[in-house]
Amino acid sequence: MPEEFARLNPKRKVPVLAVGDQVITEMPAILTAISALSPDRKLMGKDTSETVRAYEWLNYLSGTLHGQGYGGLWRPGRFVNNASVYPDVKEKARQTIKNCYTFIDGKLKEANTAYSVGDSFTGVDAFLLVFYLWGIRIKIDMDAGYPSYAALAHRLLERESVIVARKVHVRMT
Ligand SMILES: N[C@@H](CCC(=O)N[C@@H](CS)C(=O)NCC(=O)O)C(=O)O
């Protein structure tokens, strides 16, 4: 990672968002900042109750699925120094990822709403879509295993903004 980037984010992680003179890191904070740029869109929920649920989702996705699951699978060195046990760490991480997908699918099925937080699109849906696509990338059959999650993802994939974003996306790994 270039030193120029490390000066921007000393944590040496993406994503990073620059708004004016502010440099913002961490997904829940970045999505909050994006939402504030366009308040009418209510991208962090339409009321306090939905906003609370949005943060509940984002912290789970960020801390457990991303940090423990994908962190362990793609960066086992974050968890152990001894490279000979990387396979164990990766296997456990893959199980964590699948447990998270089962939990997400169950939560979406139980809620039975159009989106993850109520009846309108939020930043949580965007983050959920990333992990659906990552699941496919690591060869999990997302559509067969997690039908409610897959149904949401397929609706999201048809959104104009998602189509445009995927065209400009540069893969980091
Ligand atoms: N807690 C951070 C996690 C960010 C993160 O782990 N980013 C990964 C990419 S998916 C990264 O930059 N990894 C680079 C590395 O580990 O060298 C967030 O929510 O934004």
Automatic annotation (TrEMBL):
Top-level division of the source organism's lineage: Eukaryota
Residues annotated as domain GST C-terminal: 47-173
**Which SUPFAM superfamilies does this entry report, sorted A to Z?**
GST C-terminal domain-like, Thioredoxin-like
**Which segments constitute the GST N-terminal domain?**
1-42
Q: Which family does it belong to?
A: Belongs to the GST superfamily.
The protein depicted here goes by the name GST C-terminal domain-containing protein
Organism, per UniProt? Answer: Trichoderma harzianum CBS 226.95
The root-end lineage is:
Eukaryota, Fungi, Dikarya, Ascomycota, Pezizomycotina
